[in-house]
Amino acid sequence: MEKLKEHLQKLRDRRVAVEQSINAAELNQQVTSHEVKSWLTKVEKIISALENDKTNRKCLNGWCPNPKARYSSSRKAKNKAQDIGELLQEGRNYGGVYIDAPPPETGSSSSTEDVKHFKSRTSILNEVLIALRDDKINIIAICGMAGVGKTEMAKEIGRRAKVDHLFDKVVIAEVSQSPNLRVIQSEIAENLGLKFYQESLAGRANALNSIITKTKNVLVILDDIWEPLDLVKVGIPYGDKHKSCKILITSRSEETCNQMKTQIIFPIKPLSEVDAWNLFKRTAGDCIQNGGPFQIAKDVLKECGGLPVAIVIIGNALANKSKEEWTAVLQQLRRSGLENIPVYSKVYSSIKSSYDYLESKEARSCFLLCCLFPEDHNIPIEDLVRYGVGRNLFANIDTIEEARREVHQMVRNLRRSNLLLDGEDEEHVKMHVVVRDVAISIASKDEHCFLVRCDYKMEEWPQNERYEHYAAISLVSKELERHLDGLECPKLELLHMSLSLERPQTFPTNLFSGMKELKILSLHCISSLSLPLSIRVLQNLRVLKLENCSLKDVSAIESLLKLKILSFRGSYIKELPREIQNLSWLKLLDLSECWDLQRIPPGVFSSLSRLEELYMEQSFPCWESPEENGNKINADLFSSQHMMVLDICIPIRLLQKGLYLRNFRIYASERLDRLFELYIKSSMHWKSRYLFENTLALECKASDIAKSPRILLMLQKAEILCLIEIRDLKNNLFELGFQSFPRLKFLEVSKCNMRYLIDVKSDQTRPHAAFPLLESLVLRWTDKLVKICHDRDVLGNLRYLNLYGCTSLKNAFPLSIARDLIQLQRLIIEHCYAMEEIFSGEEKDKKEVPKMIVFPKLYHVELNFLTSLIAFCKGNDPVSEVLESSNVDAQKPSSNQEIENILEVGEEEDAVEIIVFPKFWSFKWPSMHEIYLYECPNLITFGPEIGSTAKPKKINVGLDSKRQDHTGTTSSVKNAPGFLDRCLDCVLCRKKLQGSSSLGGNEPEFQGQILHPPVNKEVDPNGNDRDIQTEIRSLIPSSLINSMQNLQLLEAVKCNSLEAIFELEGLNLEKSSAFIACNNLRELKLRTLPKLKHIWKDGPQEITGFHELRLLVVSECHNLKYLFSPSIAKLLVELEEIEVQECNEMEAILAKARENEKSEVTFPNVHTLSLVRLRKLECFCVEANAFKWPSLTKVKVVGCDKLKMFVPRKVETPPELVRVNTDLRELKFQYMVGDLNDAIREMMIKCEGRSLQSRPADWVTIVTFCHLQGIQS
To answer: How far does the signal peptide extend, from start to end residue (predicted)?
Structure first.
């Protein structure tokens, strides 16, 4: 029997080995032979038979052996052992005794460790993981410039996805600039344990596709994609039919990501300054901290531009090096000689490969032009346009407008390739500091030969022996005064100089004599009496920019006959030189912001027969001059057949005489002295300067517009329209003479007396035809405006709404219109003193009222100086709602959540309780990022405010409100079986029912009745009576928190009625176990909120959220007694700065812990704590909480008279790392020794010992912890 057991165990082991071999074969698309299957069947039978025999060898239910069977079993065992031996021998022929080890885990490399410590990467990491959980998303991308850390991020995502059990398999393959499909297939197969036996690409793809499809959940990471990869040819299944496989790609090119049909692109930016410094310290070591080259290290780090690969390479290379070696590397980096720094060659080659990959020579030239500008400069794209025209970069392009379109497309592509960054607006770009260094290095080579020196302290031209080979020179300095005489630059095509107006320049007469091939001359901030006479030799000059200059005489430009572009933008010039009329090839003339321009000689514009674009923004208001015929000037101006763009301020009567333009930006007024004021008053000055949209700003009578066919024609073509003080406009815009603005995208109406924007009647044009494309609407100081519009489908494309000083407007829109604002992104309302709500719930047609209002794209809200505002929406009039609901049963709500409230309508003794239903005014804000509230003294809640002060006009229509007394009597509700129990459950849950604790009686007693409890009491869930006045409404009620998960900034100032900010009490954690409250909120600023009692109204201790809050500022909240509770404090793991000022009632920062509430508190990232003029503050907390402050570096205490200790426990600090400033006037620092509590106590005693005369007005104590590693109890 023992021998049989031994053989049986060996057979089991052999079966396992054979099955593993079979599984491996199946992974590799191999078929199991019939013999092996037969062997497994035999093995299974014999093992099963032996198991059954073992069971039958017992009798009496297993209590004693069966003696009769013992002999027979022994004989059978010998036979079975022989059979097993034969099977074992056969099984040795089927499969090996081992299988391949599993591949290493994706992301297990130590290189991903840093990603977890980068705060600037955490949010992206979490967002990608959320996207991977979404069943609707199959392909996502991480996009960023070279060296920014895309690969490490992808590996860390793979590791986290595996740890979080999102996928059974996570595989990664590098694609690279020259993808090899066989290599990619092999890398993926190796990660999956697949061996290819097929030779063809198609066969390998089928095998890979089959195994990925069979695997339950697979994440495929394709790293470093340069151009679209054919996933089918590789063998990667994707799409809705293959939801078990998700794909994550990394690429430098956004365009490539789009071509691969990625559903979400996550841009990854350079590291933040803090993260970059922390990484640099870890790689460079202690040498930069312990007496080492600290400031030089900071400068070196700046040259790395937040690129992890550059930081690591430089940090490792300079670890433990001398100060001289650090200085040498810094000088090389500043000279942009990256290829000459051996350790930096990887960074250089990585970025240069992106440059080499650009498709066209024009794109590469456009990229190199960007390095002419200073570091971190907002580069005007218009400059690139004009430089491109000057260098003839564009083949087969005849007009400036075409060239501009081409350059903007190039810039978009460069942005998508992450070679350029976004600038301050759509007309500017930036170049990353490291990318700029690479660009300068490339441009300095023989093929291009750029000389770029942007040094504000440079006093003279670079001391180069020869300038003959340079094609472009850029010099930027505020100190440059000495210019080289007789420069020989025979190949120079572009000269850019930006100097200082404060230093008048004296140019050598022959400065330009050796630059006869110059095509572009750009002089900025030059102060000189005249241009050098040698400018006359520049016969090939095509672009001349004299911008922000002070030049007395520019007549020398008359000889520049090939000039195509001439700009005097922002320059001091009183008279346009008559000699300009000789420039017959001129296509663009820019006189914008020439404030002092007073005279344009007659005939100048008519001579410029090829002029396409004229820019005179804020220039030359003197169109009518007694000595120069103003009408003739304008007639000549408008007769140019090539004119495409006109940007001008002009009298309204000249505008009426005839103007046919394709593109225009015109400011027209009745009064000449108001032209510039019209420009400033309008919102047009912040619109695009050169990305032209037809713009018209008018200040005149309505009749002037209605009677002028020319103006009406321009209104039809206008994309941007500003109407200021249009007199005689009484009712709406249709009084201007037409009922449609077919191209209008931006509309501003200011100081007009109309009552409606549009007022559509049944016999007029359908409302949707009025503004089919309108995106932005600005209404300013329209005092008589009572309603924007009546009808739906009017503003369905609206993205931006700004209401300012509309003092008669009580709401912006009714709810029926609000539900159509699905494109709305920004909402700003200011100084509308009569506005009580943003959206009105009062509707004539109740069928028009939606149950849920969703603003899917709204991300920014500002509500300022709205003195009557109560809530975002007050809701319907409760009485009229009841009166129209005669059949209560027909209106019976489907769930408790639809019952909104029990209200009291009326005052004092006449108050009547009314049930309002359903909940029509629910809102959702899925994209909300920023909320600014300023001086809204009556604002109570951002959610719907339920209530009305109107007295009931009529009772007992469907509701028998037969009232008996004020103490628990009832009114019957007819034909509403089961209605009240829903009401009571809902209302009790929401703490809105007023009454006594007797309400907890048997449910049948109240069936079909409405209870009328006393008006001055309410019942909480514990059955305790309390005054109705103790009910606190929150700015963000619990019903809204779930829809504000993207909120990043909340600021409330001078909102005198606010009592709480976040209501957490009503959060239902059972329904959403994964719910995390406001987890993207980063900044919370609360100032001058006199009634504020709670920032967080405590909810369940199990709540999670607010993890990303970094800055908390609270000031002048005199009713606030503490900042947060321990349960909230434990959530604030990313909090960095706490600033509390002038809160008169604040006794402690941390409230006393509730029963069973965890009292240990850790602030892992708080580095600054500021406590200013908190007169009642005695300590940070009143309990002996366990505190940990591992990052605290600075504590500031100002005017906290009663502060005696920090916490009621000892808080140790390293004495050599702490400095204390006890007197701002003396600015003396002393080291703090021992306990933080002792130090604070000692400082208080010293301050108390001073006389009032010697104490500063606001005595200050500042404790600074430098490089503090940890403070804890």
So the answer is: none
Q: Compute the distance between CA of residue 133 and CA of residue 37 in angstroms, rounded to an integer.
A: 40
Q: How far apart are CA 45 and CA 67, in angstroms?
A: 26
Q: Domain-by-domain residue ranges, the chain?
A: 1-52+74-100, 120-267, 273-334, 359-391+399-443, 449-586
**C-alpha span between 665 and 647 (Å, rounded):** 5
Mean per-residue pLDDT, 807-814:
92
pLDDT (mean) for 751-756 = 91
Q: For residue 322, is pLDDT > 90?
A: no
Higher pLDDT, 986 or 183: 183
With tokens 């009663």, the residue in question is 1202
**Do 1127 and 1103 meet the contact criterion of CB atoms below 8 Å apart?**
yes
- Give residue 685's identity as a one-letter amino acid code: H
| Cα(914)–Cα(900) distance, integer angstroms | 11
CATH topology of domain 449-586: 3.80.10
Cβ 915 vs Cβ 1010: under 8 Å: yes
C-alpha distances in Å from residue 511, one per residue of 243, 451, 501, 568, 1000:
69, 17, 19, 21, 97
pLDDT digits (tens, 9 = 90+) for 1084-1137: 999 999 999 999 987 776 778 898 899 999 999 999 999 988 889 889 988 999
CA distance 1027 to 1060: 18
**Model confidence pLDDT, tens digit, residues 26-82:** 555 556 676 777 777 778 877 777 766 665 555 444 444 555 555 455 666 666 776
Q: Which fold has domain 120-267?
A: Rossmann fold (3.40.50)
Phi then psi for residue 788, to 5 deg, are -75, -50
User: What stretch of H or E contains 1035?
Assistant: strand 1034-1036
> What is the Cα Rg of the chain in Å?
39
DSSP per position, 86-124: HHHHHHTTSS-S--PPPPPPTT-SGGGHHHHH-HHHHHH
**What distances in angstroms separate CA 95 from CA 14, 33, 43, one per listed residue?**
9, 12, 15
Level-2 CATH architecture, domain 359-391+399-443? Orthogonal Bundle (1.10)
